[in-house]
Amino acid sequence: MYCPKCNEFVPESSRSCANCGCKINSSQSSAGKKVSVAAHPEYKELGGILLFTVVCSIIGIIGMIALCLQWFSLLNSYEADADFDDSIKIVGYLYIMMTGLITVFEIKYVKDVINREVTFLKTFEITMILTLVSVIIARVIGLFDQTKTITSIISVLGAYFIWGLYYTSSVRVRTYFETSAYTDESILWKWATPPDPSAPDFVPETTNKKSDMDKLIRVTEDAWKCTCGNINPKTMTICRCGEKRFAALAKQRAEAVKKENN
What we know:
There is one protein chain. The chain is mainly α. Among the domains are: about 60-170; about 210-260, no CATH class. The protein contains eight helices and two strands, in the order αααααααββα. α1 (about 50-75) packs antiparallel against α2, α2 runs antiparallel to α3 and α3 (about 120-140) packs antiparallel against α4. The longest helix is centred in the N-terminal third of the chain and has 30 residues, at about 50-75.
């Protein structure tokens, strides 16, 4: 298995990571959580559902800016209306401020994801909380009736749960951010344990110049043994002693072939 903090290989029997000292409890073992050591080099880049959330956020930002401008123009048009309740006007401007604040956090979410900031999940949660508050304000100023208010609250809570579950259980997200620290930064998802990342340094055989030889010596386990005796994770291409994985495995295979011939 791999350390949830630094992504170094950790033997199943170990209770802590030798590289960073992170404690590995039973809930973090490969037997107790979702594990993935499959090779997905594309996960290192922004894509899939994670990219979809960024695109949706950008569309939402444009829509909320337009909504703010529309409401601001509407409230200004009522300035000359003597019958217009000032309290409703105040709440209306508060609604515009809340919508603007949501827009700011949506922009921050996009920035966090693109820059691989571990605060992205917390930013998402704050956005959901502000959205709930805006729904309540919309109810106060009469924009939403009771049914629409309840439906909107259920929708926001449902979206929070579904997307939060995706962020904390997705191999793509874990691989893209190169750390699981985003759950530590979270407000309500601190208990979640993200899965192991996919193998980030995988090179497809079609583009690997040493693919023919490497195909013969590639190990199927999660680790490879160097000639010096060190056990290294499959994601490491160079042993701590300085010898490259290809060279070490090539020597081992040569020795094995020599023994067979003798």
